[in-house]
Amino acid sequence: MSPAQSETASHTPVVTRIAPSPTGDMHIGTARTALFSWLYARGRGGKFLLRIEDTDRARSTPEATQGILDGMAWLGLDYDGEAVSQFERAERHAEVAREMLAMGKAYKCFATQEEIAAFREEARAKKESTLFRSPWRDVPESDHPDAPYVIRVKAPREGVTVVKDKVQGDVTFKNDQLDDMILLRSDGTPTYMLAVVVDDHDMGVTHVIRGDDHLANAARQMTIYDAMGWPLPVYAHIPLIFGPDGKKMSKRHGAVGVKEYQAIGYPASGMRNYLARLGWSHGDDEFFTDEQAMEWFDLDGINKAPARFDTKKLENICGQHIAILPDAEILSEIDGYLAASGAQALSAEQKQRLSEALSCLKGSAKTYPQLIEKARFALVSRPVDMDEKAQKQVNSVSNGILEELTPHLQNASWNRNALEEAIGRVMETMELGFGKIAGPLRSALAGRAVTPSVLDMMLVLGREETLARINDFREFVSENMTSE
User: Fold this and answer.
1) Which of 20, 123, 253, 483 is the S-S candidate for 243 at Cβ 3.0 to 4.6 Å?
2) Which of 108, 127, 247, 251 is catalytic?
3) What is the pLDDT of residues 146-164, one digit of tens each?
4) Is 251 annotated as a binding residue?
5) For the structural domain made of 390-479, what CATH number should be given?
6) Can you give the pTM of this predicted structure?
């Protein structure tokens, strides 16, 4: 029985979530967290939810929200129900804060920003803790002034808070280091820390999988769960992604936004495979399908140490995925890649030609730009433009070779064996190696010196187009004749 099956058999339904902030491009780290949450839920027949944490109104943008939705769609991380806007739930968050106040689990704090700043400045000067202890924590309502206030949680002051984490193990925080964090600001708006807990509870989230930079937040958020008598979710705080230099992944390492990886031309399935393997392992398995990942993935397999992003490994895995992807999926993803990169879309005729060429191409490309370049011979129209290396074949020797080959191709059955025999006869007659014949053929058929197999190209192009391109090349040689 797999880890997923055994857990499903003995636990309540799993509900995970991803909760990005729409303040910029969707980061590759967020994508991996979403993937882990998706795999964990899907492998156990559970739910995977999306919440947009858009409470920072100054920085949240509709464009960034759309970018998150597009990134999730490209990665194939389907979520259950509609995406939830955290901002739209502000009244519910405030309601919980007021409920905690009524229960005596929170209190009104009338300390001003200036008073708090002065306290911290004095504490720094004395080299003491800057943790603010509000003087209003135990002041009765009858002694409250008629002035603006915030609502703070009554955090425990003694003992310890232990975060039982599936990745980090038991992490202990001394309660005298936990602040009475603000739940509701003086303008009545809820804070992020309150909103996250209320939303996770209301959405029925059973497992919170997120970056380990939120580990300290878990200890603080647990005070809200305890105050409300709500069950804690299972926590799994995963390490961040580092660049090759061992530092947190950032722009200096190249692409960090999900849409950038689509624009570079990686297949989504390869990206899922690589991101799953980035910080999680299942034995020595490097290449696997979504189905295998869902069956194998569990929180125990996540490493504590940060993973290092390796572009070569990513390309390797992506190449293996392109090789096994259905042609229709490749064509659809190429449409998405061209749109994301701002390149010109393929015409219906080009798509048909590409579809016919895929069988002989997809085992040798690691990205879609590489695949398109290899398929160039099938996408271009006559007369085929030649690059500098291909033009080195423009000479009388090449012309003679193609002149000898043409009648053999005209009379050959158009299949691999017959074409091999036709070329073999010319090799024998002219006492040439295959490479000497393939060179001018590559230039004629593709306009490039490096191409897929000449036999593959001829089979994809068909008899009529192949002979027409050879004839074009010979005419070009005649007009620009240079002797060897």
Assistant:
1) 253
2) 251
3) 999 999 999 999 999 999 9
4) yes
5) 1.10.10.350
6) 0.90
